[in-house]
Design brief:
The complex is a heterodimer of chains A (126) and B (491). The longest helix of chain A is centred in the first third of the chain and has 16 residues. Chain A has one domain: Carboxypeptidase-like, regulatory domain (Immunoglobulin-like, Sandwich). Chain A has 126 residues and is mainly β. Chain B contains 4 helices and 21 strands. Chain B has an 18-stranded antiparallel beta barrel. Chain B has one domain. The chains are: A mainly beta (126), B mainly beta (491).
């Protein structure tokens, strides 16, 4: 009887251990940096960032830039990012400029748990 | 009321016959136990072989569940056998072939929807399908002293296809191996069984018409789809595996406390043929079933009170795919986007006296489905009651009758839907709303049937015929009609 109980306990334990654990950690706090290179310092950005999930095609937009970066909560995954707008920057001599720009990346992995980052190079449109 | 009066005044039960033991509603109290092959030694009182030709027909005035269509016509040829090799060992087996049609399936282009939901390939066109199924099973059980052991193998091969666009074709192979042991401990018999399952299905959808190149959706639950791999990606396959454990406690004498605990876990991975066997989703299904009760069997009366609790959970992981290098797609992470929780809690009372058996079941059924992001939810809960009556009559030494009738009602008590309607296409919106309309409805059912077994003493072979019908009425105003006919020989 004792052996049977031990066997039952072992089977029950094995069964519970084998249970699938749900992956419920869905979201990540993504930080997207605009990189203008070493020669300029970005002060302010007025732009719309359009972030498209490559697998679901779900599109999220934000314009809440803080300096050269924007933070947004996203479903963990692979994304395409398109940022277009105006930014003000200081060049290496400290002179301020305001110019139109675009920053695009066809593939960015924002799949980390907790937080993750992506850096986008900008090009000026004028 | 007349039925209850007849029941109470019925004469004392005749001694158990093999026929009564096999067909009586009382068998319901040991059905779960017989999932353990070690306990098959006492499954029937007499050996038999049965060959039967069956026909099942279902027609729904509108599909209660779009993915399963409006009905089917399935003729089936089956052979079953239970043979006692020695006083302490038995073998049993079954072989069957069925070929038929299902009607108006929409948003489902795979076989075994019940197993694979929600991870199916689908479109809004759908249509009728043809279905062909082969089943084989066999088992052996032996008893030595207080110990019993047994093993069983089951195999199913199935194909389902459509001969017009969209031309779906699914081919299924499903193998199940089971082993069990049991031991008598005083007045009780304790059993344990373990089973393993391997499953595979290839599913593809073709369009021959030049203008019919519409996209197929890789569904992921509650109207969502894996958009990146939908469209022209129409060749997929499923690889499944799983196992189950059951534990049983039954009184040796047939009277006393009884318990059954079952746990099963299966997983079905959906892979894309066209993307180098890329896994798109994995569905994890966990089922727990607990039955606890008490039963008493005397020469005159059979009584049982059973409590059931069944839990069924589906969780579908979407594999988040990165960008390809060559033909290799990296999996960045897995997210359990879809979950379904089903609860069925019920109490059953069974009473048998003489030729009559009555069974009443009342219960609570709850179904909750959710999709994590963008949030979608669909829920309903029902309270239901069912009453079944059976009259097993030995009319003469040649003729036996099994007459049964059942009535029931499931009333909706709660329902809820949350959908991002603004982001949904019109066709998916209609699909989701249609599904919800039938989920939150109430249903009434009525069924009746009769089986007659005829075997004069001089015949070595008996013949039987069965006719049954079942009706279901939905509060929306639609109905379902079922018809069952079978003819066969038994020896």
């Amino acid at each position: 009887m004792k052996k049977i109980l031990i066997l039952l306990t072992m089977i029950l334990t094995l069964t519970l251990v084998a249970c699938h654990q749900d992956n419920d950690d869905y979201m990540t706090q993504a930080t997207i940096y605009l990189d203008g290179g070493d020669t300029l310092t970005i002060n302010r950005v007025q732009a719309m960032a359009q972030i498209t999930n490559l697998n679901t095609r779900h599109v999220v937009s934000t314009a809440e830039f803080n300096g050269p970066q924007v933070q947004i909560e996203l479903l963990r995954g692979a994304y395409q990012i398109n940022v277009e707008g105006i930014l003000s920057y200081n060049d290496e001599k400290g002179v301020q400029h305001i110019r139109s720009f675009r920053a695009i990346s066809d593939y960015v992995e924002l799949a980390g748990t907790g937080s993750c980052q992506a850096k986008l190079n900008i090009i000026f449109l004028d | 009321m007349a039925l209850i009066c007849q029941l109470l005044t019925a004469k004392a039960a005749a001694p158990d016959s093999a026929y009564d033991y096999r067909h009586s509603l009382w068998r319901h109290t040991i059905e779960e136990t017989l999932q353990n092959p070690a306990l098959m030694n006492g499954a029937y009182l007499a050996p038999f072989t049965e060959l039967s030709l069956k026909g099942d027909y279902r027609h729904q005035s509108a599909a209660f569940r779009l993915e399963q269509g409006t009905g089917y016509l399935m003729p089936e040829l089956t052979a079953r056998s239970f043979i006692r090799l020695t006083p302490s060992s038995v073998v049993w087996g079954e072989a069957g072939y069925s070929k038929g049609d299902t009607y108006n399936k929409v948003y489902n282009n795979v076989a075994d929807f019940d197993l694979l939901y929600p991870d199916v390939i689908a479109d809004s066109l759908g249509g009728d399908t043809k279905r062909e199924r082969y089943i084989f099973s066999g088992g052996y059980a032996a008893e030595k002293g207080a110990w019993m052991i047994g093993g069983e193998l089951k195999f199913r091969a199935e194909q389902e296809y459509r001969t017009y666009d969209p031309r779906m074709r699914s081919i299924v192979s499903d193998l199940l191996l089971k082993g069990g042991a049991a031991r008598n401990l005083g007045d009780y018999r304790m059993g344990l069984s373990v089973e393993g399952n391997i499953y595979r299905q290839t599913a593809d959808v073709d369009f021959y018409g030049e203008t019919n190149g519409m996209g197929e959706l890789q569904m992921t639950g509650l109207g969502t789809s894996y958009v990146r791999f939908s469209g022209s990606n129409r060749d997929i396959f499923y690889e499944g595996k799983g196992g189950a454990v059951t534990m049983d406690l039954q009184p040796v004498s047939g009277s006393g406390w009884m318990a059954h605990l079952g746990y099963a876990q299966h997983q079905y991975e959906r892979l894309s043929d066209e993307y180098n066997s890329l896994p798109l989703t994995t569905l994890y299904r966990q089922q727990v079933g607990l039955t606890f009760g008490w039963k008493q069997k005397t020469a005159d009366v059979e009584k049982a009170l059973l409590l059931h609790a069944d839990y069924d959970k589906r969780a579908s992981d979407e594999h988040v795919v990165g960008t390809a290098t060559g033909q290799d797609y990296p999996i960045l992470t897995d997210l359990t986007m879809y979950k379904q929780h089903c609860w069925d809690v019920a109490a059953e009372a069974l009473y048998g006296r003489g030729d009559w058996h009555l069974m009443m079941r009342v219960g609570y059924l709850s179904n909750r489905e959710q999709y994590a992001y963008v949030e979608r939810k669909m829920e309903y809960a029902r309270i239901y009651g069912e009453l079944t009556a059976q009259w097993l009559k030995t009319v003469s030494c040649n003729l036996r009758l099994n007459v049964y009738a059942k009535g029931g009602y499931a009333g909706n008590i709660n329902s809820k839907i949350v959908m991002p309607y603004a982001n949904m296409t019109a066709s998916i919106k209609d699909y989701v709303n249609y599904t919800y309309k039938y989920q939150k409805a109430s249903y009434a059912q009525a069924q009746a049937g009769v089986r007659a077994d005829y075997q004069p003493k001089l015949w070595r072979v008996g013949v039987f015929a069965q006719l049954g019908t079942a009706w279901q009425f939905c509060s929306i105003g639609e109905h379902e009609a079922n018809m069952h006919v079978s003819l066969g020989i038994i020896f």
